[in-house]
Inverse folding.
């Protein structure tokens, strides 16, 4: 990081708590719009509960449509949040400081959106979903079937949600104390309770540092397991062409990282545009995440390529017919081309240029493009896979999402927006103590005739 | 004997470190004083004793508990109602391993979080002597001691260059 602005602690508090201590002008209109979209989606959900899943476009043989696409998409987004935070913490990367919390919070709300997409909406009768997950019916001794992937899924997702929420909360403690010291009345009482009486003793700081490393190390294996298990929802089925593949777990994980890191970059740009935190999020930060994205995207493309090679080299007629459906038949062919362009061929070549990586506008456009592409990728895995006629399946047909499904998909996006906006109104989206620590450990050193910024760490 | 605390505020790291030396020389035990800062400093910046903790035990205990719960849940529930599904064994190791893995990790994480809070000595019900300027960059040196020694501590802190002094109440647990 060559770009650096040295600021004192008071200035950092003033800047980074601006959205907490005062309501930004755009905040109320933004959350109102998001709330309207969310409530409309909830209305559609209520209508579906009343009328049944017949109001969706789901029908034999396509029972997994927009809801499951959305579930896998949000699980994917949730991954890079913690991944980026944990890996950058473990490697002590300096450029992590302003982005870790936003990434972690994105994880939490994305996971909630995923839970909203699948267990809540997709199952049609959400009150029964709890019975699949938890041991039940003690009187008759009937228990959950742990051999089903739909039991592995909730256990992994709930573990990940619990872990990432606690990860965020523990790292919030020092910043809550800063807000406590700058508020009065009921707000002060609330933040005093939330910060648990934090004082900033050397012991507390040491434990905070150890906690960051320890929790990162514990969350990373969970992060790997979650998307592996989500991929096994598909891969353990032997009857669906293009799903029953051993490469699915790593392929899903790298896809999740691709879309998730892109989402973090999008959030970084929005943080600068909306809160004017350009002193903290510099073009250097975007440059760093842009370079990371090139590596991630290229690795993802390699897995995508290998997955296709595995499929074609089987030389099995149903598998090849399935692939032909994906790439040669309209509308899947059009969607396939759009997916390839938006997920890889448009953004990645652009990221090779430093000017693009350092441009807030272009990073915003390219990272949004990646997530459009990655949403389509999940759609192209799920829908053509289930719609193809298979032996002993006596119904076949296509899938047309109904307006109800579209509204409920929009509801999950609105939920994430609401979550992020509410969080940013109550808690600082950039960790103050991390930024301050970076400032304390900063200096300038002279090398020959040049003075360069240096970062000192233990 | 009542426990009281007194806080001296300092503007830079050097004077705060000098204050700790002065307290040591005045006969105060290392457990009676601590530095309060709004930002993490490298260990030993103020010449304070290195904090000792046992946090690493918590995830190990949690992981063991989580593993046992996972094992009991997966094996116990299936054995309690031995229904063969899809011709698979009642105790099928691969799916059991998945649930047990998640249980182990969840146990480790939950216990780690409990450990972090416990080892950080939180929650702290009484703030004692505290100043909000600490989160704006000032460095506080807090002395928690018997009521009879508070005046002496105040003198030491004042002589070391404290810009502001403040007293506070403490509970016996915060000593």
């Amino acid at each position: 990081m060559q770009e650096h602005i040295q600021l004192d602690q008071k200035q950092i508090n003033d800047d980074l708590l601006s959205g907490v201590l005062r309501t930004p002008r755009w905040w109320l209109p933004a959350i109102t719009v998001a709330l309207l979209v969310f409530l409309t989606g909830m209305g559609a959900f209520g209508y579906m509960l009343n009328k049944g899943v017949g109001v969706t476009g789901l029908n034999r043989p396509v029972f997994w449509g927009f809801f499951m696409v959305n579930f896998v998409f949000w699980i994917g987004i949730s991954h890079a949040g913690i991944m980026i935070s944990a890996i950058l913490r473990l490697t002590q990367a300096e450029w992590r400081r302003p982005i870790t919390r936003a990434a972690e919070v994105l994880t939490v709300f994305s996971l909630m959106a995923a839970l909203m997409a699948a267990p809540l909406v997709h199952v049609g009768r959400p009150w029964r979903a709890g019975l699949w997950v938890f041991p039940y019916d003690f009187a008759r001794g009937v228990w959950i079937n742990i051999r089903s992937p739909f039991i592995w899924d909730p256990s992994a997702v709930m573990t990940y949600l619990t872990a990432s929420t606690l990860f965020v909360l523990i790292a919030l403690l020092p910043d809550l104390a800063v807000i406590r010291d700058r508020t009065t009345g009921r707000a002060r009482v609330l933040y005093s309770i939330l910060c648990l009486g934090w004082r900033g003793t050397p012991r507390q700081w040491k434990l905070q540092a150890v906690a960051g490393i320890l929790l990162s190390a514990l969350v990373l294996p969970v992060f790997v397991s979650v998307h592996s298990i989500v991929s096994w929802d598909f891969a353990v089925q032997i009857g669906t062409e293009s799903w029953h593949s051993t490469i699915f777990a790593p392929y899903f994980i790298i896809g999740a990282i691709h879309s998730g890191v892109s989402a973090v970059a999008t959030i970084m740009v929005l943080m600068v545009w909306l809160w004017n935190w350009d002193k903290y999020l510099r073009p250097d930060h975007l440059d760093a995440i842009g370079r990371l994205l090139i590596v991630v995207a290229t690795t993802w493309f390699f897995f995508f390529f290998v997955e296709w090679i595995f499929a074609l080299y089987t030389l099995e007629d149903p598998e090849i017919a399935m692939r032909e459906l994906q790439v040669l038949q309209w509308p899947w062919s059009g969607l396939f081309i759009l997916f390839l362009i938006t997920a890889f061929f448009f953004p990645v070549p652009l990221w090779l240029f430093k000017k693009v990586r350092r441009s807030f506008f272009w990073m915003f456009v390219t990272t949004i493009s990646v997530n459009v592409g990655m949403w389509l990728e999940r759609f192209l895995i799920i829908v053509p896979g289930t719609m193809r006629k298979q032996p002993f399946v006596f119904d076949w047909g296509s899938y047309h999402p109904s307006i109800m499904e579209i509204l409920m998909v929009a509801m999950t996006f609105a939920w994430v927006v609401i979550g992020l906006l509410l969080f940013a109104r109550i808690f600082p989206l950039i960790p103050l103590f991390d930024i301050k620590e970076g400032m304390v450990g900063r200096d300038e050193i002279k090398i020959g005739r040049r003075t360069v910024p240096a970062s000192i760490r233990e | 004997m009542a426990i009281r605390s007194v806080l001296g505020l300092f503007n830079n790291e050097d004077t705060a470190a000098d204050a700790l030396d002065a307290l040591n020389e005045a006969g105060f035990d290392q457990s009676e004083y601590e530095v309060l800062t709004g930002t993490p400093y490298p260990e030993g910046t103020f010449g304070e004793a290195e904090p000792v903790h046992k946090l690493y035990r918590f995830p190990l205990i949690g992981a063991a508990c989580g593993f046992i719960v996972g094992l009991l849940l997966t094996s116990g529930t299936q054995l309690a109602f031995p229904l063969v599904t899809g011709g698979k064994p009642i105790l099928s190791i691969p799916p059991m391993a998945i649930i047990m893995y998640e249980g182990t990790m969840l146990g480790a994480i939950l216990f780690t979080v409990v450990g972090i809070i416990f080892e950080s000595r939180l929650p702290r019900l009484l703030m004692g002597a505290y100043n909000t300027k600490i989160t704006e960059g000032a460095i506080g040196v807090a002395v928690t001691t018997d009521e009879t020694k508070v005046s002496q501590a105040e003198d030491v802190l004042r002589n070391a260059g404290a810009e502001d002094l403040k007293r506070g109440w403490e509970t016996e647990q915060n000593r």
The longest strand of chain A covers residues 442-447. Chain A has a mean pLDDT of 89.
